[in-house]
Write the structure tokens for this entry.
Amino acid sequence: MYQHPSQLRIANVHRTFRMLLARGASSRAELARLNGLSPVTAGKVVEGMLEAGWIEEVESRGEGRPAIQDPGRMSSGSEESAAMGRPPRLVGLSSTIRFPVVEIGTQQTSVRTISLAEAAAADFDVPTHHGATFVRFPTPRSVAGFLSHLGRARDALGIGSSRAVLVSVPGVLGSDGREIVFSPNLRWTNGRELIERIEGLFAARVCAVQEIQALALGLLASGDGGQAGGTLGPSPDSFVLVDFGDGVGGAVVTGGQLLHGPQPLCGEIGHTGVYGNRRRCGCGAVGCLETLVSCRGVLQSFRTRWRKPKATWSDCARHIAAHGVEPWLAPSIDAAGTVIAGALNLVGAADLVLTGDLPSLHPEVLVAFERRVREHALVGRFARLTCHLAPRRRMLGLVAAAAGRILLPEPSLPVAEAS
Ligand SMILES: [Zn+2]
């Protein structure tokens, strides 16, 4: 396929940006090798990105993030060091370009600002490390109430002008990313008003991503495959991700791309009915999986079993962490495993990634999931079926989405991937 040189240049910028997001700071030689570019071309791409301010020269690779193994050599950087007699100069994503990030949850909403450099750091999703740049409030029940809380958070964090506001939403997002089509647990967010008014409040474009799709994009962007057998492996490029939090949702990635259906309802696995379950769901149906294995669902089972109607999620989480999977919890995990196996059977994915609260509470939870999924997912009989437990990397996913949609120049022609 013929490609205009300017398109190739833009494709190289995107590729370099993604590489720095996944690896953290890197030398020009590493970027050239990993992107399959000549040193001269890679150097030009880096100079252009430095000029545009997207990246900066940095002293060290930074901490908290293991470099992704470079298959081309034993230890990255050592050859340059040896040849030049000094450490190679590194470039990393900008620490001065910052975005406000708004995570709308069904219970809590959090607001923070994040720099491109921070998005590439592994632990940034853990807000306790970043108290000074983080505000959380109970999600109000109206657009007006939400906007007034958000305005106060913006002022408290001293958020000034920025090119984009990154927003994750729990509801189903329309294909133009500007309309919340249906949010079962936050029906007041339905429609276009919320995103328009957030844009007005920050005087910046909103890059909105459905919250579970943001996790899948984060996993893709990180290059980590989660903890499969206790080791960080390379990211699979086709997987089903299921997240357990206030709700239960899924995302499907095939060939490195999020799967989108003809309707924007792809991934709503939490609303699959479970036979015999009589609990009423926020979506209006009875018996949805979400009512069993979301935090609220697990807590309801805990309260019933131990006759503690006032128990909190912390009480319940502590109990599971201490006792593992007991008979009161096992049927809910079995139900989830069976539903997830159905998703794997349908899309033929051999990698299942679990994120969020329930799978992280005790190692037995992942084992119980895996047992049930293996029992019913046919792919496991013909190929390796892997269950990964992965950390949530929503910040990274949102930044990766914003880079592609807003920040970097958009390729106007289809661009072939370098091998
Ligand atoms: Zn439902």
Q: What stands out?
A: The pocket of zinc ion is lined by residues 184, 271, 281, 283, 285, 288, 290 (CB under 6 Å). The longest strand covers residues 108-115. Residues 63-82, 225-233, 413-419 have pLDDT under 50 and may be disordered. The chain is about 40% helix and 20% strand.
